[in-house]
Amino acid sequence: MRIMNALLATMIAIGGPLQAQAYDWNGKTIMHVTDFGNMQVSSGHPLATFRAFQLVAHEAKKRADKGDTELRDALMLVYGEANLEDFANKNGYAFQTTVFGNWLNEVNTNVDLEGNFLMSTAAGFLAARYTGETTTDMSVKIGTHEHNEYGDLTEAQMHGDHSVVWDAATGYSSTNFRHSMMVTSKDAYHPITQDQTFDRITEHYAYHSISVAIQGLLDTVVAETENAELEQSKTFWGRMTDLRKKLGSSVFVSDRNRHKSNFRYIDALSNLGGVFHLVQDSSVACTDKMKLIIPDCIEGDGHGIVRNIGGRYQVVALADDEVYQARKDFHGKLDNVYRPENIEKVFGSFDPAIAGAHILREVALSVYRQHKEWNKNPSKRIKAVNADGSMTDEFVRATYEATKIAAKKINNGYVRIRYAEKKDRILPPKLSDLQAK
User: Fold this and answer.
1) Does residue 146 lie within any of the structural domains?
2) How far apart are CA 363 and CA 52, in angstroms?
3) Which domain holds residue 328?
């Protein structure tokens, strides 16, 4: 979803009571940082994210009841919760941090509002609220490691008054790929094709965000392991002398409140939340099932066109800004359909919560198994954390390939598969065609 208008964006930025109905981004969350306020769960993105947590927790419990505890143990270790009940709790640390990252997709799009004074003012409020004074602050509030169209890492997701991927030619559509929509160019000499946006979604944004999530969570659990051993080896006075240093470190965290202390953990789950947002938006289209709820919608409304390709629902075309601006009332209606009573009837196997649960599971298992391999012989393992809290070059090199392989597998299996291959795509919907229907 993209926030419906500049007034709403302004109210959100200054913490007013107006809410984006489809998403229940509640007033408490408006000024949200990861240790203040909780997202409410009743519809849209928060509900789809929460259901993903519930589904994977249910799977882990079923496996554990049959004697296979690997998934349960992986979820607990990697996401930092004490038990499955806490993990699948709407106020849980891991869930709240992930859904906060989900919300940041809205922020990154709406800092690029432009066109009149009200839009510029709204964008200014958002940029001021979510841009930190230092790189670390931006890491906490925005989530570092946004990736440009070439997959290169950048220091933060925002620069100046715009998102980091903003360009004068693409304007407000610059971050549309985060919402499963077309990025369009006003520069006639540098057009952007639909296929290029498909590639940006699946080959760059989703893949690299999953990579960052895996590496950040792996760094977190490995650093916690080394830190726990360091603590055990110290005398009481040694611990007291070193306390201040450890508390100031970016990765030395031994309590369960990682979300308050560890920017790598926050960053990892924020990136994961962004991927969830993309997957969730990919399901919002005027399908035959959607017409059961919104009978007057037209194929092309929402975020794109979804059709059954070889027995699997896939996105075959992406909506652009022209369609969005002209038919945003229908866009909003479709966004608002993801509610408990509609999920099975409308979304079925294309329910984004199912994909989200698979992603949570596979990320956790990848990190858990890498950690187990690293720790199988403690006396001979690679040292992971430097004295200043950064990860050692040797550890980064040793884990790089496994992280990339896991990220590619997860992306291909649960994100890329939601988008049609080039041969099955159709031309993006044109406003004139929709108006003629």
Assistant:
1) no
2) 13
3) 282-350+425-436
Distances 401 to 185, 359, 398, 404 between C-alpha atoms, Å: 35, 19, 7, 5
The one-letter amino acid code at 253 reads: V
**Alpha helices (runs of H) in 112-188, residue ranges in sequence order:** 117-130, 135-141
Tracing tokens 């200014």 back to the chain, one arrives at 124
**Is 51 exposed, middle or buried (CB count within 10 Å of its CB: 0-12, 13-18, 19+)?**
buried
Residue 298 maps to a domain: yes
Q: What is the pLDDT of residues 271-328, one digit of tens each?
A: 999 999 999 999 999 999 999 999 999 999 999 999 999 999 999 999 988 888 888 8
**Number of Cβ atoms within 10 Å of the Cβ of 416:** 17
Q: How far apart are CA 269 and CA 276, in angstroms?
A: 10
Q: Are strands 162-163 and 304-309 parallel, antiparallel or unpaired?
A: unpaired
- The Cα 396–Cα 112 span in angstroms is 35
Whether the model clears a pTM of 0.70, i.e. scores above it, the answer is yes
Give the Cα separation of 291 and 272 in Å (integer): 31
Summarize pLDDT for 24-42 with one digit per residue, the tens. 443 333 444 444 457 778 8
- Please give the Cα distance from 11 to 118 (Å, whole number): 11
d(CA 318, CA 180): 7
